[in-house]
Amino acid sequence: MPILTRSVVHPSRRFWGRLVLASVLTAIVLSPATAGSESARAGRTHEYDLKAVFLFQFAHFVTWPARSFRDETTPITIGVLGEDPFGAALDEVVAGESVGTRRLDVRRYQLAEQVGACHILFISASEADHLPAVLAGLRGRNVLTVGDTKDFATRGGIVGFGVDRNRVKLRVNLAAADSAQLTISSKLLRQAEVVRKGAKR
Amino acid sequence: MALHPLGRPANDQLETPAMIDPKGSVSLHATIRRVPGRRRVVFSMIAALSFALSFATWPCPAAGADPPGETPSALKKLSLEELFTLEITSVAKKSEPISQSAAAIRVVTQDDLRRMGALSIPEALRFIPGVEVARVDARQYAITARGFNGTIANKLLVLIDGRSVYTPLFSGVFWDAQDVFLDDVEQIEVIRGPGGTVWGTNAVNGVINVISKPASSTQGLLLTGGGGNVERGFGGIRYGGRLGPKGHFRVYGKYLNRGPSLRPDGDEAGDDFEVPQGGFRADWAPSETDAFTLQGDMYAGTGERPSSDDDEFSGGNVLARWTRGFSAASDIQISAYYDRTKRTIPNQFEERLDTYDVGLRHRVAFGSRHDVVWGIGYRQYFDDIRNSMMIAFFPEELLRREYSGFVQDEIALVPERVRWTIGAKLEHNDYTGVEYQPSTRLAWTPTTKHTIWAAASRAVRTPSRIDRDLHSPASGPFLLAGGPNFESEVLHAIELGLKSQSSERLTTSISTYYNIYDDLRSFETGAFPFLLANGLEGDSYGAEVSANYQARSWWRLNSGYTIQRLELEVEPGSSDTSQVKQEGDSPRHQWYLRSSMSLPHAFTVDIGVRAVGELPNQRVPAYAAWDGRLGWQASDAMELAVVGRDLFDRQHPEFGAPSSRREIGRSVYGKVTCRF
Hints:
Chain A is an alpha/beta fold. Chain A has 6 helices and 11 strands.
């Protein structure tokens, strides 16, 4: 029951086939010559190891109002909202550390609504789409918001990580820090770029 | 011959001539006849130009590796000043913002899932432009992108954590058997348009990727449960903990019991359905660069039938994955999975399918401009079908093997301004031999707020068992004798889109496409026995517009509009009169608006309305459906929600021919979620 008669190989199919074959062959030929450069692991400091250390350092360079702690021994909580990019690094950095009488504590949150008593909050790139809503929900609370998404500080976050020539840079939105009633040490501010523009919240 | 894998008459596919709408539309098609050769010439020219250009930009490699970096514990001993002087490297794959990607992509986030009140994957896909979601009965959905909808729709590829869940039985998805613990889903990516270059055959009109969270993000205990008039009872428990200092795990169990759909007269259709499911995931990262994942699921569902024994479906899967990151621009991933699924429809059909898959994917940067991904894969299906009197697959047992390889290069023609992606996949299958699926995409980002993109692609749908092996009755003389000469269906697609972030508050996206289909499945009824063949061709075009508006810090609005048109015609020599009607299986227009409000005292209010045009081929009238959700985060640990669907409508049909279809009734349920 022949239903359709179709040419065996369409000329343009042959053309496509050769083109693809040629490009795959070229890729195979070229790859051993060039791939070696990338296969060696670049051994610089891992981005999120370093950022974890920065979060830990912020605990030393930021002053929270007394009412954000229940008592003298209430820990300083470092929170991560959304997908955690730090792996084990943040826990490793914070383990056994304290600032004065306060231990350091790491908590992870999946939803903005779950962020309870928290002093430093890293807002992951996974939350970038609804950053305005997350920040709005934290308004009036004494939380140091930290992020590394684009324009984090000018979008209303307090400390934004940037990267410039493979080095970490900080941008600090002082207006946002003020409205959260946080005092950031001048020692930290000296190393940071202070941004004001677009600091609506 | 109304075969249907779920045992219901297949009104949308394989229609018998007697069921055909008398108002044919053949005359309409005669006027749009094209010369097949010309468009192939155009595609060949695009391809030739693309490859010529790609060689011109091939770079000289950069060399050199840096000394090893410090551990986190050592780093914290450094002074603040010293920290700023350290050079960093990132093994985290730099994720390209969706707003700048050269494709029609939409991401459903965990927040969206929760605030839509979605209890299943299909319900999470309702508010995506270009995607059609039609509920067929209590457990079946017809889901597609950009046309060709049906309960056995076959042009959409669906992956759960990289595991393909479409069945080689009909190249579609049994949606009732695809479930995940929704609270543990990171996001669902929906790509409209062909994705064959990376994803392979079947990614003809779109790809859906369900991606679950790593176990480290789902620590602790989560309890969730609720019930209502239609979603009679559902619940889940998940516990996540640590596996030594470098690993995490989670285990979950869940259960869903859904009440029946309705007959047009309002009576219950007797298709109640329940499915318990359980699973686990373990992640282990022994070093900064290596990550291992092992995960799996098991399920066993039953669907009631009014006049016979219950349908049963069950299965399980286990997946292992190893990823090593070399740098931000380079990583390698090796993964393997095994999936078993079994389905029994009493007196009609029984299938057991075992799938083995192994794949390797390597991403590497050449110089500063080329970001290359390549991969190879092998998949093996063993399909064992028990035939019945009226429906039979020959051979009953079949082993199928697929080999594939792909390479794709993303080239920064002008850094941060113009990106050009070119690639192709070659795939070998037992039915049609080697298939090739090339594509080329260009994205121009004139300012960081605007991206204009264009793409040309070729994608194929390779034959599934239903195309080749389906016979009726089970012994000769056959009325239907399969499709012995069935070849792949072919799509050539051209896409053009614009994404813009007009302000901090408003983002918009427009995607347009022109699709040319060749060798689509036809049902040849000119002589006995009837056969399946590739006697249809056609084209479709459409536009999808969406906007996201942050009206206030606490109020987000989201809207989308889809217009599409599909025109099919029979190729010379074909006697098809039924499949050509598929063009009427999709709505011409779809529109939705969603409002998400975060109110004081941790209340959230979500309202969604969607309007779906009529399906002329099935005489399903246009409808509008209102959904709502009121949520309250009562404490850090507990959230309460009330969800209503189809609020202002007692019942309405979404899919299926009038004689046999089921309708969807209004539903309300409450839900409690606790996290500890």
